[in-house]
């Protein structure tokens, strides 16, 4: 855990792991603000472009050093297990730090730390069981396919689930034998630094994981454009992904990107209404709506639409909003005041275009909530799926409810989006659930549940929601280069030259 001085500042010398050491940041000042009350959690300087360069070069040197390069997979697995153990031992302190850094509830922060530990354990197990491929020979040779480290991986992660997103990139990249230069979100970098501390304390050579806090336009851009970075893995906004994709195309560099979403949640007329209500509430209002898979478009069959909206609004109003440190809190503040204002502006714009706010929709201006970056659970209806509020990602606790008639109508509306990350279906008819799930354009579809995620199951999106997949056994191979090796078995394998060698 970082030492906090009486002024509330985290000591810079303990903060920024760059190229194997703790260095004072060379960039501009960053302040971590607790969004529950506006107080300062930490204050330090960002990494510089020069520090990014040192991190990349030091990481590549270590990857190519036989001392790490020749470590066998089962030996690398031991390091990952140690990281998992340390994360579990430090779970309470890391969760508290994440809650103050992002505003998340302690319960959610604890779950994210547990998820990070589980990710390291999972990829340790994958290393212990991963097998090479002996391909069918079509001649007098032995042919096989092997996977090797890429070298240095640039990882760029978001603020909405920091330590879990960091682990989803760092764990498989390390497992594959790479070095990682990790840029966490500028507004929430503290748990990434604690993850790097755990990795170092587990005995991983320090050059293999460098954390370089800072802005995407400076630090992130330096990572993406660096000629020695062999792959970039991003979880973030679609616009950021498009910019990275342009640079990657110029470098002919592989990328994996999990981007934005505008996920539909569908309630059919035969659904268990109580379960569907619970699922819709969890899908959009947990994490204060700050989730890429948030079920922000709620499609309800026209036969039950009005009654469902009434119950949804009543339940939303009973959700407990407050600071993440309060165990009773269900809806915590937004990550920052600026983001809170962005969410509010999206709702105000929808109202100006004719939308109807059924509950919520106003920034608290009285009482203790007025001191923080809070936005209430909000339900909107009265708009078409073509409206801006239905097409653009809000990333806040705002649900737009839309009616549908036929299954064909539902599929057309649900797919009428530039995004394709996730979808939820609530129905008792399993044949229909299967049929609709296959027709929906999304990387993940939940049936009679929502936001259930597993490190063993691949995750990613389609369309503008991303490229490639994380997690699962194939998630390890995403951080490798594939190579084919042929071993000749014929005593005279290449007779083409004939007698000219005699």
Describe it:
Strand 1 and strand 2 form a beta hairpin. The chain has 502 residues and is of the alpha/beta class. It contains 16 helices and 22 strands. The N terminus is likely disordered.
Short description:
The protein is of the alpha/beta class. The protein has helices at 49-64, 66-69, 73-89, 91-102, 106-129, 162-175, 190-201, 216-225, 238-251, 273-285, 305-318, 337-352, 388-391, 407-415, 430-439, 474-477, and strands spanning 17-18, 21-22, 29-33, 40-45, 133-135, 141-149, 152-156, 179-183, 209-211, 231-235, 255-258, 264-267, 297-301, 356-359, 378-381, 398-404, 419-420, 422-426, 444-447, 462-463, 466-467, 480-488.
Q: Main β-sheet, in a few words? A: 7 strands, mixed
Runs in which pLDDT lies below 50 for 5 or more consecutive residues are: 1-12, 18-23
- What overall form do the CA principal axes indicate? globular
* Structural classification: alpha/beta
Counted beta strands: 22
User: DSSP strand (E) fraction?
Assistant: 15-25%
How are the strands ordered across the major sheet?
A: 14-15-16-13-12-18-19
The level of helicity is 25-40%
């Amino acid at each position: 855990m970082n030492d906090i001085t009486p002024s509330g500042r985290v000591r810079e010398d303990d903060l920024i792991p760059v190229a194997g050491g703790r260095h004072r940041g060379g960039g501009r000042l960053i302040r971590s603000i607790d969004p529950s009350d506006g107080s300062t959690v930490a204050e330090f300087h960002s990494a510089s472009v020069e520090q990014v360069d040192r991190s990349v070069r030091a990481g590549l040197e270590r990857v190519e050093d036989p001392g790490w390069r020749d470590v066998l997979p089962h030996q690398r697995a031991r390091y990952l297990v140690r990281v998992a153990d340390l994360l579990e031992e430090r779970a309470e302190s890391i969760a508290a730090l994440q809650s103050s850094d992002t505003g998340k509830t302690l319960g959610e922060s604890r779950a994210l730390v547990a998820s990070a530990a589980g990710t390291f354990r999972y990829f340790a197990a994958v290393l212990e069981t991963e097998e090479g491929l002996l391909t069918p020979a079509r001649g007098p040779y032995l042919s096989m396919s092997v996977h090797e480290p890429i070298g240095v991986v640039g990882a760029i992660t978001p603020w909405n689930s920091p330590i879990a997103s960091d682990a989803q990139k760092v764990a498989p990249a390390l497992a594959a034998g790479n070095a990682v230069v990790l840029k966490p979100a500028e507004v929430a970098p503290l748990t990434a630094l604690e993850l790097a501390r755990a990795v170092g304390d587990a005995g991983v050579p320090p050059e293999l994981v460098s954390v370089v806090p800072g802005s995407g336009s400076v630090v992130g851009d330096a990572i993406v454009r660096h000629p020695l970075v062999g792959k970039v893995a991003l979880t973030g906004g679609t616009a950021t992904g498009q910019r990275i994709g342009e640079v990657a195309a110029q470098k002919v560099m592989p990328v994996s990107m999990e981007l934005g979403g505008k996920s539909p949640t569908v309630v059919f007329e035969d659904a268990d209404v109580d379960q569907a209500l619970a699922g819709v509430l969890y899908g959009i209002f947990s994490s204060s709506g700050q989730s890429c898979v948030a079920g922000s478009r709620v499609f309800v069959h026209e036969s039950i639409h009005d009654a469902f909206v009434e119950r949804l609004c009543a339940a939303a109003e009973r959700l407990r909003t407050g600071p993440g440190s309060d165990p009773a809190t269900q809806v915590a503040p937004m990550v920052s005041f600026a983001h809170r204002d962005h969410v509010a502006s999206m709702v105000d714009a929808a109202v100006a275009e004719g939308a109807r706010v059924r509950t919520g929709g106003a920034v608290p201006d009285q009482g203790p909530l007025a001191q923080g970056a809070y936005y209430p659970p909000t339900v909107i209806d009265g708009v078409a799926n073509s409206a801006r509020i239905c097409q653009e990602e809000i990333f806040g606790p705002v649900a737009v409810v839309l009616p549908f008639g036929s299954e064909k109508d539902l599929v057309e509306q649900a797919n009428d989006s530039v995004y394709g990350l996730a979808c939820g279906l609530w129905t008792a008819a399993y044949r229909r659930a299967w049929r609709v799930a296959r027709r929906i354009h999304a990387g993940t579809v939940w049936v009679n549940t929502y936001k259930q995620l597993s490190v063993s199951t691949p995750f990613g999106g389609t369309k503008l929601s991303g490229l490639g997949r994380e997690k699962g056994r194939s998630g390890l191979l995403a951080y490798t280069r594939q190579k084919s090796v042929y071993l000749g078995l014929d005593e005279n394998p290449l007779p083409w030259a004939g007698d000219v060698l005699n």
